[in-house]
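Subject: Restriction endonuclease

B.,
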Amino acid sequence: MNFKQRTLAQIADMICGNFPAEETFFVYRTSSQLTEFFSDIETDYAHDGSTRKYWVADTLEKILAEPQPNANTPPEAFARVVDRLMDQADAQNEDEQRQGALAQLNASLAREGFEAFYAPDKKCYLRHVATNTVAAPAPNPHRPFSAAELERREQLLAYLERCSEDELIEEVLLPLFRQLGFHRITAAGHKDKALEYGKDVWMRYTLPTQHILYFGIQAKKGKLDSSGVTKASNANVAEILNQALMMLGHEIFDPEIGKRVLVDHAFIVAGGEITKAARNWLGNKLDASKRSQIMFMDREDILNLFVVTNLPMPSAAWPQTHTTHYPPF
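Prediction pasted inline below.
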């Protein structure tokens, strides 16, 4: 990823703190403090004694040249640069919200199509304005959650209990997969079942090698089980089998390349539990090649991923008396 030299120079000035002390919103950093700054963001860059501003600008250029997750997301190290620069504990001549520093940083980032913002965890993130993609470290859905995150998880759990299948797709799954780096996400919807061919959603993911994988999603609102008699709120895995086979066997048209392509992998997503018996039954019914193409995501996966990716809650998930909303991502 390439930033303009003017942008790099301005951000370097902010990192160095090259402003009059009474006017600056940024901490002044000496040579050793610059080395410490880049050590804090888990890099090995050490100041060599040259002019600080030019050395920092050159270092930022090297960081931006590192591999990036996708075309609209800068390298993870650059996201850590922004987070470290905007640490609320480093506020100068303003309160910890750092609105002045944020405005100054965003004036430079706007030139490159990005903006910085504070999330509810009080960390500063980068967002690609055109696609709304947030640059953040790879989420770990298995880490311990904070009290605030557990509260959000409970609110989303209550929403999943009462939402419709279309709301599950539109309000939860689509934002989640976009945040995880999938693109060209197309929802088939439920108004015209004849055109669905076993897919509720299809999307694609670009590998670092620039190869493209295509994914289909078959989503069910409730529990997915393998019982002989299916309850009204549940879906039987036998109903999923034909839909999964249709998904893998039917071509989709990708308008960006002007070709029809097959789905490489199928996500079976449930707003409730996917029982072990259901997973085993489906696996036994599929041959080895098809079995490797099927992936499962149940309620626990959805809840954990939604929380760790810091996505805003669906508006209907908030209690009616709740007035404080997370900033939009």
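Residues 147-317 form a domain with the Trna Endonuclease; Chain: A, domain 1 fold (CATH 3.40.1350).

T.
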